[in-house]
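[Backbone geometry]
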Amino acid sequence: MRNWRIVIGYVCLVLIAISMLYPFFAMFNLSLVPNGEIFNQGGKLIYSPITLDNYVSVFNKIPVWKYFANSLFVAIVTTVGQVIISALAGYAFARMNFKWRDGLFLLVLITMLVPPQVNIIPLFFLMRQFHWINTYQALILPGLFGGFGIFMMRQYFLGLPKDLEESAKIDGCNIFSTFFKIALPLAIPAIATLSIFTFVTTWNSFMWPLIVTNTESMRTLPVGLAIFKGSFREITLWGDLLACSVICTIPVIGVFLLGKKYFINDILQGGVKE
């Protein structure tokens, strides 16, 4: 009876995986089908004929490489910056005793309750005051601070045993050496998880880049592709749009595959209770 339960469980998991993965496969497959043949694929699991014309068309019509480079640069710098700030702040809140520590951490938690849309107008006026509209500073700096990142890193550091850190202090390590040599290497799973979340969020960001950029050379990929979609008048080129969607998805999948080992380890560690 137990074996049957295991088999049924695996079958259910496989069906769920197929239901989640097939739409991505269909998107990629349809992006290779000519525009005139997309709506003639009824009843098929694998679509044909296969061609790269849609991708060639997209790269000829819009500067995809420029959009891609802007998005990649902004996402990488924002991710690195937020991980550094969140790790330092999280460790300070977890291990250091200073005046008003709990009050400051409460303010950090309150920022997580504020909808991002509320901050858009004040941030826009601030960027305009600094003359940073249509610059990388406007695209990157607002994303460097994140209450969620600080909260997650603090909770992870609180879960680490203090024995190693206390031993390092006995051996003469100061607070910075203890952080960089002991705490930070132990926090790699949390750092990988935060990096994945931050990269995906920044890569998919649409509203803020749309507001603070006004030239084609500064547009990120989601903004550029949305404007490209809006350029259609009488006929929507679905093959071109699907090709754009595939281009947007590839980096996100790549980042997850690179960090999935640490991401899964973090989830497993979070599920273990002492």
